[in-house]
Description:
Four copies of one chain form a homotetramer. Chain A is mainly beta. Helix content of chain A is 13%, strand content 34%. The longest helix of chain A is centred in the last third of the chain and has 20 residues, at 251-270.
Amino acid sequence: xxxxxxxxxxxxxxxxxxxxxxxxxxxxxxxxxxxxxxxxxxxxxxxxxxxxxxxxxxxxxxxxxxxxxxxxxxxxxxxxxxxxxxxxxxxxxxxxxxxxxxxxxxxxxxxxxxxxxxxxxxxxxxxxxxxxxxxxxxxxxxxxxxxxxxxxxxxxxxxxxxxxxxxxxxxxxxxxxxxxxxxxxxxxxxxxxxxxxxxxxxxxxxxxxxxxxxxxxxxxxxxxxxxxxxxxxxxxxxxxxxxxxxxxxxxxxxxxxxxxxxxxxxxxxxxxxxxxxxxxxxxxxxxxxxxxxxxxxxxxxxxx
Amino acid sequence: xxxxxxxxxxxxxxxxxxxxxxxxxxxxxxxxxxxxxxxxxxxxxxxxxxxxxxxxxxxxxxxxxxxxxxxxxxxxxxxxxxxxxxxxxxxxxxxxxxxxxxxxxxxxxxxxxxxxxxxxxxxxxxxxxxxxxxxxxxxxxxxxxxxxxxxxxxxxxxxxxxxxxxxxxxxxxxxxxxxxxxxxxxxxxxxxxxxxxxxxxxxxxxxxxxxxxxxxxxxxxxxxxxxxxxxxxxxxxxxxxxxxxxxxxxxxxxxxxxxxxxxxxxxxxxxxxxxxxxxxxxxxxxxxxxxxxxxxxxxxxxxx
Amino acid sequence: xxxxxxxxxxxxxxxxxxxxxxxxxxxxxxxxxxxxxxxxxxxxxxxxxxxxxxxxxxxxxxxxxxxxxxxxxxxxxxxxxxxxxxxxxxxxxxxxxxxxxxxxxxxxxxxxxxxxxxxxxxxxxxxxxxxxxxxxxxxxxxxxxxxxxxxxxxxxxxxxxxxxxxxxxxxxxxxxxxxxxxxxxxxxxxxxxxxxxxxxxxxxxxxxxxxxxxxxxxxxxxxxxxxxxxxxxxxxxxxxxxxxxxxxxxxxxxxxxxxxxxxxxxxxxxxxxxxxxxxxxxxxxxxxxxxxxxxxxxxxxxxx
Amino acid sequence: xxxxxxxxxxxxxxxxxxxxxxxxxxxxxxxxxxxxxxxxxxxxxxxxxxxxxxxxxxxxxxxxxxxxxxxxxxxxxxxxxxxxxxxxxxxxxxxxxxxxxxxxxxxxxxxxxxxxxxxxxxxxxxxxxxxxxxxxxxxxxxxxxxxxxxxxxxxxxxxxxxxxxxxxxxxxxxxxxxxxxxxxxxxxxxxxxxxxxxxxxxxxxxxxxxxxxxxxxxxxxxxxxxxxxxxxxxxxxxxxxxxxxxxxxxxxxxxxxxxxxxxxxxxxxxxxxxxxxxxxxxxxxxxxxxxxxxxxxxxxxxxx
Lengths: 304, 304, 304, 304
């Protein structure tokens, strides 16, 4: 199996971009083990550690891009999440400054209020299928991929934000067993991956899950001619559409967007009438938030 | 056990209001069977039926208010949902006009576009623990209470909207076994209930679940001196806080609001440090949408 | 000219509601001088004064309702703002607690942060066409009506919020010379008015303008059979449509809503093609925010 | 005076990016005439013309980047808008497809509804200080720069969206006489400019103003060590702060953000106490929307 180590990778990336040189090339159908750094760029490794933003002003470094042979704009990648393993036996979390707070970010309220939150650095050992939030509290190890996406066609998008290209969606459903469909927008599709979490709640309200460096095993396939507006996911029991907030898309709009994508999917691939699909989704669909910027709609496979 | 039938009720209510006369009085600890009409005011009973908005311009009629002895502003009601049974062996759903569409309502886009959606009236028989979405497709009967709330102190709020007083929250988690805490804002608290659903997906995207007239069995308790900003729910496995959208609260704000309520709850009643609670919620909380206006945060009881 | 004094009024109202008894009845075409209290219920009259929310938990008291003979659901009131005069030669402003902060209200962020803002009580003398923000800084006296609206049909809506019925819209354009169209939803329309401001900036960002008790002279007319979805305003140079935020209407949606209302108005009453109106609005319309919940679209009369 | 013609420019850019090679280099203090294409990439020049998105899938082409000697991350550019002249004596507007509609974009509602809007291509001759919306309707020629911004540090951002780096803000106030402050994020700052409008209303509701190819005369200065979170503008009578919507910033948040920036500006450069500034802004500030993604707060200079 091919491997993309941090050593091979040399430079991690803070944008999903068509301008970075591939660090690995694969053929459709190949499996790869990708080594990824944690979202703190490895700066929080022991109690008391803090982010050094002078040294690294950005967050959420990505491995890749991986060039997929034969992929072109208008195709889709299908990425199977096979396995996610911690590489240093621990994860970490913290409380970001108020200015960072999702929704208040770039909003100088924090500066006006002059409030400082506790730093809250917390190292969480991982062993025997458990993540130790504290000495007393063990959570189940439920690993997931926080950030996965392809290069946009002409943009380079910060790895902190999600969008139609994927990116920092933080869906806990992107875990071993999940199949992720991503739009290809550039030659080779240029897959980025990183930001593994040992555990994460819906909405990731503080903005930092239990972040860990990891080895992520994926299998990469190519679906020629499949044009996607947004990433899709297939789980054991659900098909899933996604959307994200952004200029012109509030969380309300993103929710509707994910539903409309589902309705069109049910019509196009499963032969359901769109209005019947609309009515059926109203009764059986589940909604799951990734972080506060991303949302997904889940339709139970048993009704397909 | 006391009963509040539609016959007793005489007039159903389209607002949650301190101005309606109680139709029943209970002592704390009493159980009641409340008969409720469906959200269409019973106007859709056979295929082809349509809402007659000349006759009844409002939606979502409520039974009650039930006066709870001893309740006053600053107390909380605790309502146990015991049982929800269909009264006519069927439910109904439809596709509301575009103008109604959540988020576009009162927004004359529909009028500008001149679009008309199919009516989509659909009668769904309920039997043997199944709801028949169609002849071919049976869904599990998973009944829930769409609307439950208390009278605001001085306002009369349309039964179509949710708010800090409860109302049309459409949480599928408000099902048999759930314990719902509601703020008391007026003497007797004045409990309203209605809008039973035989099944409903998260976000209730079309705005109409499988709506049914029902008999709802509840047990009503009083928690003196418990002041609530928003309704709370206790489930077998979770404690749940809620919030809703409204002027000054986008869906992003409502999500944060529900989380902050949870953090304060964990601090006040379970002795957790608020910042530790904030960090722990980030790893283990679940978010569940009711309709597109309401959202809940769920914290697993096993970590209390 | 008829007068409605605070003494006549006896009890001020904190909701716009069909349930309050009229304090004055007028015939269409009559002018009235209405005495109004300030938004602090008169509790801030000298430096150091604070709101006593134990005594009066609500804000923004209203005079009225005024019963307009012949008005019924489906008609419109036309209210000319003739004159606004301070009654005690001063106004007042303050900084509300963070919990109040528009958009954070009912959001317990403030409680989590434990932040307290300065109280900021400020008495502003008004004389010779000036409002003294401080001894050194005189602003022009530019009086306006913060809250004006009619009773909803079955709801009683807090006087703090705006909505399709009018209410706390805080449009600085509702000043002497403005003609305000309001929907009638109940017999007699039941007009409420209050919350005069000696000066106010767009968005009223702290939530409190220079609030003053005032005598407001209005002329009340009735337009039979004119059904309105939202209030409209006519100024010397503009026709104006309005909208507000609320559950299902973000500020983005409210902005679009006001534009679509304008486009339909231009089509229905001025014979413009709706798509041409849409294109022309894109080039010449102005947008003005009232408070952070309300927004208006202004079309220049010279292009009618 | 230096000139940057479309011929010199060779390739127009559809992102604001640090990866494009400068097409001109200037010293601080120099003036430049920049030739810009219209937002349709010149594809709509006569009645009936349509956008050919096969040929050019992106919108809003930019001239530049202009390298400013001595500029570095942490400095600010000061760009004086001197003159804006149409180069072909006409502008054009149209109605974009529903899918494009701001707020519904990337939201497949249009596809679900199957609605098609009229194309609405309209050529508008410009002469003698007038823009001819139609043969009968002449609007004043009020030219403005729709898009101006600097390269982000590591991102390449579509020229269609605005952000902290500037970009497609569509503020009608960016007209001759305006002084625009932009953050420098990269060596040389890399200024992009384009998207001139002959006229535009607030919110640019259809998404297309009267778009024209133009010659824009600017003077470029450098303010060393001036760190900006967002662009600022100085007008004859106002100082102006700006913000934009985006993931985590609804229009409500963006409005507050622009106000908080203003309050901090008043404190830092004009010695006002921040809470007094907050109170004064509440009374005297104006808010002006650019397009539906961008908003500005204006403080009258007379109160400085």
